[in-house]
Amino acid sequence: MATDPANVRAGTRQHIPSPEDVIEGSSDEARSAENLMESYLGRARDIDAARMLGYVSVGLGLAALLAPRSVGRLTGLQEHAGLLRFIGGRELASAAGLLTQRDKAPWLWSRVAGDAMDLALLGTALRPSNPGRNRAMGTIAAVAALSAVDIAASVRETSRRSERLPRAKAQAEPLVEHSITVGRSPQECYAFWRDVTNHPKFSRMLESVTPIDDRRSHWVLKPSGGSKVEWDSEITVDKPGEKLAWHSVGGSPVTHAGVVQFEAAPGGRGTIMRVMMHYRAPAGRLAAGLAKLMGKDPNRQVREDLRRFKSLLETGEIPTTRGQPSGRRSLLGRLMPDGRKSNELSAGENV
Amino acid sequence: MRANCWNGVNDLRVENVPDPKILNPRDAIIRITSTAICGSDLHLYNGYIPTMMKGDILGHEFMGEVVEVGSGVTNLKPGDRVVNPFPIACGGCFFCKSTEFSLCENSNPNAWMAEKLWGHSPAGLFGYSHMLGGYAGGQAEYARIPFADVGPIKVPEHLSDDQVLFLSDVFPTGYMAAEACNIKPGDTVAVWGCGPVGLFALASATILGAERVIAIDRLPERLRKAREHCKAETLNYEEVDVLEALKEMTGGRGPDACIDAVGLEAHGHGFFATYDKVKQSLRMQTDRPTVLREAILACRNGGTLSIPGVYGGFLDKVPFGAVVNKALTIKTGQTHVQRYLRPLLDLIEQGRIDPSFIISHHMSLEDAPLGFEMFRDKQDECTKIVLKPGMPSIRRGGQESRKAGDGGDSGTLH
User: Which pLDDT tens digit goes with each residue over B31-90?
Assistant: First the structure.
């Protein structure tokens, strides 16, 4: 189908998804799909030391809990059957944490603490009067080796966690950058972007953009967090087929600036577009609304907007599943005993 | 309408759902006349493909009659009888233009999810998880087809549903796998797995000029189909050591090309099969690469390893050293079905192959959950189930599912 911008404008207005849709469907579904994805990736990540140690804990825990006497004989701790039962319980608690919790760091450290306890206990078993003294020595060596693994895993997991935290905080003033290859000429890409009224078609954050004059326009974000976020924007650099830059002007509390470059891709493969954008709002409700629109990952918003820009230019439409059927049930449907009542407001229906 | 919905691992239900609507200008709606259960649907059924959600409609092998088209579709009209390819492709992006339709850049609205797992996203697929688009599938009475001006192919009235249905997936998939082997005169091609894709790979390798094709499976009825319909020699891996046997059969050199038509739920036997099962159930690896390992070791030096079997995630203990030192070529990918529709339909029309030989059962759409169970457990010599919307259900006291005539007729390749 032709991708004459006029066609695009006429044909796709009603298909523009709403901003809370990170994936197609309601935001609840988006979250659950995201969680599914995370757990799948987590499962596959580098054979997962935490999970391995979890299984070690299950083994040790069950042995100590169910057969404390045999374990005692084997380890040189035959006088401490009661304590061994306790140790078994502790191991199982660590195992439960390691195998079921998403944040593994505290559970890994619980194993390190357990190792320290065990080593202290084994130290007491080294006294000459203990007949299992030699076995206790062997056990100390084994526990020490396992402690090294535990400590290494704990340190790594903790540093991983601290890497995650600051990233989550840094969302107040995102500067986002992204590029994409579009199978149209730089001139066509430039022209579609330059007509600011096209932006709400591919950007999920925007409610509307209204031209004021040739260089200035009024931008309104989708309502979010209770306050209306809007500003006037002015084009500062305008090189047809090459580059566009703009920034917000006038009394708006929101500052927004951006630049997009259009570059012919090698071998006649269309246009490489590089976009850089910056949003900033004073602390308070405006900032909260903006943050909500940008989501956890502002990069992703821009990336998805660019993807939709590409789809519009290459195919004349934006791929969607919003409004397609599914067997997802409403609360009422779930209560029906035969589970056969489907939900009219299912899947992506806009509710 | 009625549709077969995924409700969790091993939990499918045929339910009432809303009818599909035109959502984009290039959409079409078809009324489905035949829809099949694919071996790759079993990976969803058994829970090995991530990002499924309760209520998702399954099915990606289907055909039917166009009932409605969007304003952007000019090549189809209501009443046309079409077969639909399982990947969704826009026809206009970099990959579509080079006929790599299953890599379409514009058809997966959830591309970011696939990018997280694989670096880049392939095309959206019908009924195959949210990571691959979240599109409602075709085990239903109706389906919405995006980019309908690119995908579906019109089929002539004189060919039955059973003869053309498999153009949607398994026939092109087997064909592309064989084509990837770059078969030369005198070549021997070994195929692991004699499910529908394996059988079509065998048949296609013969059509493409292989001197010998060798089929490997454990189910006698499937090996029989390979012998009778694909002119294959057969090996039952429960009876012989496959590596030894292949060496013996090829004068010590090994097959020129090996095709893994099994994928991530290989059965196998012996130490590594058990090791994989344990690791997969402990969720420490996602896929069981039993067949892949064997095919790598079996393949001759400088040979081709073609992998139509589906893998989803991460594989363990793959002898990659053998791949490098034996200078193997690996070819794989979801099938670029749109590329093969016309040439393969021509083969069917010329009578050079009748794809309906893989069918073992016809059942009502209502009995889809039962069909999945039978297919998973290989009950009743189940090789391929075609579901028919509107056919009376067994459970409602209707007629029995029809088992396809399995006569040793004159063979399928002509």
Answer: 999 999 999 999 999 998 889 999 999 999 999 999 999 999 999 999 999 999 999 999
pLDDT of residue A173: 59
Q: Which pair of structure tokens corresponds to residue B70?
A: 């969007």
Evaluated on CA atoms B23, B25, B29, B35, the torsion sign reads negative
Band of residue A337 on the pLDDT scale cut at 50, 70, 90:
very low
ipTM of predicted complex: 0.88
In this structure, what is the dihedral angle of CA atoms B204, B205, B209, B210, given to the nearest 10 degrees? -160
State how far the Cα of A347 lies from the Cα of B20, in Å rounded to an integer: 11
CA-CA-CA-CA torsion sign (B289, B101, A12, A255): positive
pLDDT of residue A16: 35
- Distance between CA B115 and CA B112 in Å, rounded? 5
Report whether pLDDT(A338) > 90.
Answer: no
Mutate to test the interface with B, among A21, A26, A40, A344 (most CBs of B within 10 A): A40
Q: Are B85 and B337 in contact (CB under 8 A)?
A: yes
The reported pLDDT for the residue numbered B228 is 96
pTM across the whole model:
0.77
* Cβ–Cβ contact B395 with A under 8 A: no
Nearest 10 degrees: Cα torsion B194, B195, B199, B204: -120
Length of chain A: 351
Confidence of residue A171 (pLDDT cuts 50, 70, 90): very low
Residue with tokens 């209501």: B78
Average pLDDT over residues B128-146: 97
CB contact under 8 A, A342 and B130: no
Q: What is the mean pLDDT of residues B126-154?
A: 97
Q: Residue window 51-80, chain A: list those with CB within 8 Å of chain B.
A: 51-52, 55
Mean pLDDT of A82-86: 86
| Alpha carbons A73 and A76: distance in angstroms, whole number | 5
Burial B68-104 (b: 16+ CB within 10 A, else e): bbbebbeebeeebbbbbbbbbbbbbbbbbeeebbbbb
**Cβ atoms of B220 and B237 closer than 8 Å:** no
- The residue with tokens 């591919």 is A202
Q: Which two tokens stand for residue B276?
A: 């994989």
Q: Say whether residue A9 is in contact with chain B using an 8 A CB cutoff.
A: no
CA distances in angstroms from A23 to B10, B37, B55, B221, B228, listed in the order given: 25, 27, 16, 44, 47
Dmax (CA) of chain A: 96
Distance CA A254, CA B332 (A): 50
Q: Name residue B9's amino acid.
A: V
Residues 6 or more apart in contact with residue B216 via CB below 8 angstroms: B190, B191, B192, B193, B194, B234, B235, B237, B242
Give pLDDT, residue A39: 60
CA angle A160, A165, A170 (to 5 degrees): 135
CA distance B202 to B187: 13
Q: What local confidence, expressed as pLDDT, does residue A168 receive?
A: 36
C-alpha distances out from residue A204 to A102, A309, B163, Å: 31, 11, 45
State how far the Cα of A315 lies from the Cα of A295, in Å rounded to an integer. 27
Cα dihedral A285, A287, A291, A294 sign: positive
Tell me the H-state helices in B13-164. Answer: 39-45, 94-97, 111-118, 161-164
Task: Give yes or no for a contact between A118 and A87, defined as CB atoms under 8 angstroms apart.
Answer: yes
Whether residue B251 has pLDDT greater than 80: yes
Which pLDDT score, from 0 to 100, does residue A19 have? 34
Residue of B54, B90, B108 with shortest CB distance to A328: B54
Verify whether the Cβ–Cβ distance B284 to A48 is below 8 Å: yes
CB < 8 Å to A338, chain B: none
pLDDT at B399: 46
